Structure formats: structure tokens, C-alpha cells
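Collaborator request, handled under Task 6.
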Amino acid sequence: MRGVNLKSLVGVSVLLVLVSCGHNIEVEGTIPTPRIAALPVNVGIYYSEEFRSFEHEEVIEDIGSWKISLGEQNFVFFQRLMDSMFEETQDVPEPPLRPEQLVGLDGVVVPEIVKYGFLTPSISGLNFYSASIHYRVTLFDSEGEKVHEWTIVGYGKSETGLFNRDSALKEATVMAIRDGGARIAIDIPRAADVLSWVADARGGAS
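C-alpha cells returned to the collaborator:
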């Protein structure tokens, strides 16, 4: 019994040490918006509260606890990204929307962060920090029917020699947001389902 208690105390002590070695990272930085031709449609965008304030928390043995807050930076970037991808945009409530809420819209786009992950040099054995963001982007038409759903992953990395470890992970995360945005801006407008949807929307408006 005494051995069990000692083991529990050791486990709690290790956890407390890890938590005390905490990294609280607020992701900030300048992310250029991809220069692309806007699709000639009017879309509603639904940004969930989770998307707007996304945070990743993780405790890693030997290197402590990590809290990466990327929601605000990511949200501001996506607002600019959506404005560049579509001729007109406006915020809308969570789908499904009522018919009167869809009036004047050609469709609705819902971006989500499905997963965030990172690697430190102590984990990967490499001399850089890396980050990945798994996005899901869903497009609905003007009747609320799903046109397509994409899963797109953005990757970023930052060498340890250029920044301290918190700044390096912050920079890697900014690069992952930028990479994910670039992939969304390139892949989605070229998709056959999107081209067909745009053609239908323009035909309906003419």
C-alpha cells in the first residue's frame, strides 16, 4: 500500500513539474493573402466560436505543457482569404439556414480546424520546430445542399537557430496557416464541383 502511495506521489510530482514548465504561445504574425481571381458569387461564411478562438493544449513528457492559441490569428487571416476568393461575403449563422436566410446567397462556406499538431526538435530529432493544421472546408449551395467537402493540411517549420523555442513554434504555426490558406485558395476554385456550382449560380442570376 505504501508503495502504491509513493508511486502515485511520484506521478503527481512529475505532472506538477511538467505543468510548471509551461509554454503559453499566442500566435501572431503577418500572413499575406494569396492573390487570386475572386469567384463571381455571393457567399455566406459561418465561423464557429471554436474556429474563432481555437487553442491546442498538450502535456509532453520531459518538455512540459504547451498551450498554443492560434484562433484569432487564423480567423483574421481567413476573413481576408474568403474576401479574396469570393466576390461578396457575409457572416451567417450556423447551417442549416432557413430559406429566408439564404436569400441573396449563392452558397455557404464553413471552415473548420479539425486538428493541430506540432513537433519539437527533442521529439523529431531534427533542428527545427514543425506545425500542421488540418482544415475542413464545406461548401453548401443556395438550397443548403452540400456541394463538396475538402480536408486540407497546412504545414510549417522554423529552425531553432533563428528563434527561441516558443518563437520558433509560433513562426512554424504562422507558416502552417499560410500554407493551408494557399492550398485552399488554389485547390477549391479549380474543383469541378465548384466550377459547376459557380456556373449554375451565374446562370440562375442571368
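The cover message to the collaborator said: "The longest strand covers residues 128-141. The first helix runs from residue 2 to 20. Please let us know whether this matches your experimental observations."
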